[in-house]
Amino acid sequence: xxxxxxAALAGVSTRTVRHYHHQGVLPEPPRRVNGYRxxxxxxxxxxxxxxxxxxxxxxxxxxxxxxxxxxxxxxxxILLELDADLARQEAGIRARRERLAALLSEDSPSPDDAVSxxxxxxxxxxxxxxGSAFAAADAELLALLDTAAEPEDRDRxxxxxxxxxxxxxxxxxxxxxxxxxxxxxADPADSRVAALAADLAAHLPPELAASLARTMPGADDPFAxxxxxxxxxxxxxxxxxxxxxxxxxxxx
Length: 252
Fold this sequence. Notes:
The protein is mainly alpha-helical and about 250 residues long. Helix content is about 65%, strand content about 0%. The chain folds into 3 domains: about 5-70, Multidrug-efflux Transporter Regulator, Chain: A, Domain 2 (Orthogonal Bundle), CATH 1.10.1660; about 75-110; about 110-245, no CATH class.
């Protein structure tokens, strides 16, 4: 049979047949005296097998080796790996649909709402204090963390921050935000700075503070510098001193 007939029999295009020849999946058949390829039943069977295996997700290199019988791995091993990969993709799709469902439940979703379900749940717990500029900045930083951090690191941090969502902790946070706002335009040497830094450090749950002490970047870290640049000089000094206290050092 001719290449078009072979392709039609296996349900593929003639371009696919030629590509399989080029990749070594389908050996080149003998040619007639007029130069046309002459295919037989075995070619059709091999092409059909190749199509079924590629539809399962095997790469052409894997298909070629499996059909040639000289694969370093058994077909079962390849299929088990493929099944595990599909399971991971399936879990990823489910997670994306959960995030979409959460967004669609909002009347007017915004780009900042497109966070993971666990982060979205945590941010909802902070709603009572989301009115201030500092609370909004905290939420933006958490949304950035949700994108940049590995899921297990993010979830571990959220668990350490969970005590900060109690009514008492939220009330303290609101007071701290108000005191920070009052320092806008103040001198970094203002007497209120050190007291507020101590209260800010004390506001952190002990386990969270211990974790931050091990991992907190220095004040010269680019991310820390960008964060401090958005604050007034006195407010930035509060954060620097609080960071030093949490890290176990003395505020400068």
